[in-house]
Amino acid sequence: MGRRIRVLLVSLGLGFASLAGDFAAGAETALTHPGRIVEMGANAPLSDVVVKAWPESRRDGTVGDCPTYGKSPLASTTSEKPNGRFTLEIDAARPTYTTTYCVDGYFPRADLDISNKVNGSPVMPVPVGLVARKNDAAAYGALVKSKVTALLSDLAYLASAKPEAYSSAMSSLESEMPNLPPSQRAVLSAVRQLSSEKR
Known about the structure:
- The chain is an alpha+beta fold.
- The chain is built from four helices and nine strands.
C-alpha cells in the first residue's frame, strides 16, 4: 500500500512539473512592455485608462468612441493608481502592435506599429499623453505650440550632436515611409524638409 502511494505521488509530481514546464515555455513567448499615461500638458498621471494592444495598423471600427484595429485585442489592461503605469504582454511572434487608450473625459488615442522585438522595451511614446476634452481653443493652441517647440528643439539638438548619424537615421526613416500611416508620413516629410533647409 505504501509503495502504491509513493508511486502515485511521484506520478502526480511529474505531472505537475510537466504542466509547470509547459506554462513557463508559454510565458517565454510573450514580450513585456511597460508604459505610463499622463494628461498632456499638465503631466498628471491618469489611472483607469483602458489600454488595448491590437494586431492591425488599419482602423476597422469603434466601440463607443474608442477605435479598434482588428477583430480582437492581443492584450488589454488598465492604467494603475496613482502613477498611471501599465504593462502589456505581446506574443513574440508579432513584430509590431497598435495601442489604443480610452477613458471618459479625454480624446481617445491610437499609436500604430509599435515595435515588439525587445523584451522590457517601453510602449512608445514615453509617457503616453492624452488630451482632456475640456480644453478650450486657447489652451489647446498653447499645448500644440509647446509640443512642436519641444520636438524641434530636440531634433535640432540631435542634428548638432552627430550630424552624419542624424542624417543617416532620417534617411532610414524616409525609406520606411511607404509603410507608415499617412499622418506620420506627412509629419516625417515636413521634419525632413526642415532639417534639409537648416543644413
